[in-house]
Amino acid sequence: MKIKSILALLSVLVFTFACGKATEEDEFNAAGEPSSGHLEGKVAAEDWTYAAGRAKPLAMNPSRLSIDLFGSVPNGDICSFNPGINDTRIQFTVQKTTGTFPLDYSAGQTVNFYLDGQQDPLVSSRGSIWLTDINSRSVTGKLKTIYNENNVVNGQFLVVHCEN
User: Residue 4's CB: how many other CB atoms inside 10 A?
Assistant: First the structure.
């Protein structure tokens, strides 16, 4: 009887250590819908809060929008602003329609984290984009995405709708 009790205890301990504690990434992935609060999080391991953004139809496919989200307001007209390598931003393209768009690398639905001084973006395929309103002046939506614990955002945004 004592051996069965010891084996049962060992089984519980092995199961507990094998499963481990949920990480922040696991909790983020399990959370579901993006937050209705202001878009914020971490970008390049620094606190980041959405400040300004724009949505532009793609020249080769006007049924899709390219959306840029900035942590600071760019100088000049946001619709004609040309981000450089030193402009940290979050960028994605999405169908020009309201709805929910799960991120999926194989389907080409990703979010790019462009970090200050880096040519190539960090490409996230975990999370979702929700577009809730599109009109001639603005696009409203929610974004929830994580690349890693240093590049993760969640919340609502309102961007200027720029027509080409």
Answer: 8
pTM above 0.85, yes or no: no
Per-residue pLDDT at 23 = 55
Q: What is the mean pLDDT of residues 91-110?
A: 95
Kindly write down the DSSP assignment for every residue of the chain, as one continuous string.
-HHHHHHHHHHHHHHHHHH-PPPHHHHHHHT-SPPSSB-EEEETTEEEE--EEEEEEETTEEEEEEEEEESSPPSS-TTT----TT--EEEEEEESSSEEEE-BGGGTB-EEEEPTT-SSPEEE-SEEEEEEEE-SSEEEEEEEEEEETTEEEEEEEEEEE---
How far is 29 from 38, CA to CA, in rounded Å?
19
